[in-house]
Amino acid sequence: MPALALFVAAAAGAADRNQHKRVGGIDVYYGIMPAAIAGEHPAPHPEKSMHRGAPSGKDRYHLVVALVGADGQRINDAKVEATVGELGMAGRRVTLEAMPVADAMSYGNYVTLKGRGPYRIAIEAHLPGRERPLEALFDYRR
Asked: Which superkingdom (predicted)?
C-alpha cells in the first residue's frame, strides 16, 4: 500500500506544507502524488483500478482529499469536487470519488499538472445537512 502510506505521511505533515485548512469546523487535507504510484499495485488490489485505472504520463497526478469533522471522525458521505489549474488560468473541474482505504474514507481522482505552476486547487465539498458547500483553496507547487 505505498499510495496509502504516502498519503498518511503527507497528511501527518500537511500543516507544515499548507496542505490543511479548517473551514466551517471541518478539517480539509489534501495530498498529491504521481499517478504511476497507484499503477504499481498488483492487479487484484483496489487501488490499481480505482478511478478507472491509473493514467500514464509524466503530467498525471493523483489528488486525494480527506475531510475530518469537529469530532475527529472522517466524513464518509460528502460529494467532493476539485478545480485544479495554474494560478491565473482556468482550471479543470473533476469529481473526487469516494475511496475507502484502510477503514478511512478519502476522496480522489487523477488530475493533469502541466506547465511550471504554481497551481490553485479549489476543493468544494457538499456535506449532508449543510445548505452551502464547504470551500477550501490551496496553492500547490510541484
From this structure: Bacteria
Taking a C-beta distance cutoff of 8 angstroms, is the pair 55, 35 a contact? Answer: yes
Which three-class secondary structure state does DSSP give residue 24?
coil
Where along the chain do its domains lie?
2-140
The CATH code belonging to domain 2-140 is 2.60.40.3340
Structure confidence at residue 39 as a pLDDT band (50, 70, 90): low
Whether residue 120 contacts residue 142, with contact meaning beta carbons closer than 8 Å, is answered with no
- Stated pTM of the model: 0.78
Quote the CA–CA distance of 110 and 38 in Å, as a whole number: 10
Between 1 and 43, whose confidence is greater? Answer: 43
